[in-house]
Design goal:
The protein has about 110 residues and is α+β, with helices and mostly antiparallel strands. It contains three helices and four strands. Helices cover about 20% and strands about 15% of the residues. The strands form two sheets. A two-stranded antiparallel ribbon has the order 1-4. Strands 2-3 form a two-stranded antiparallel sheet.
């Protein structure tokens, strides 16, 4: 008979938070996969919600975000964003959003 592993209450709490995260079911882009050249992303930072913890800056795989003079994140290289949304998912205060930039098709 297989033994059941016991998990500490701290681990159970963390697991519960991860399972109940609102974006858990959404697929996250793999930062190792190359970005399609025809896509650009908008990054919105809500300073009223941000506590300048730097988690988004630390998790950005392409170094799009940098800490500004006041400690808040700033977009330093928007073109390098691959849309992986790691910054958005790891932000504890939901103060950052990443969305695909919509461009109108050129009419001929």
């Amino acid at each position: 008979m297989a033994q059941k592993k016991k998990t500490s209450s701290k681990k159970r709490k963390n697991l519960s938070v991860k399972q109940n995260h609102p974006k858990r079911a959404r697929l996250v882009r793999d930062p190792e996969r190359p970005k399609r050249k025809d896509r650009e992303f908008e990054i919105d930072i809500y300073k009223a919600w941000c506590k300048a913890c730097g988690i988004c800056v630390a998790f950005c795989p392409t170094h799009v975000l940098a800490q500004g003079d006041e400690g808040y994140p700033e977009v330093s290289n928007r073109k390098a964003c691959i849309g992986c949304e790691w910054c958005e998912i790891h932000c504890p205060d939901f103060a950052i959003t990443v969305r695909e930039k919509r461009t109108r098709a050129k009419s001929e």
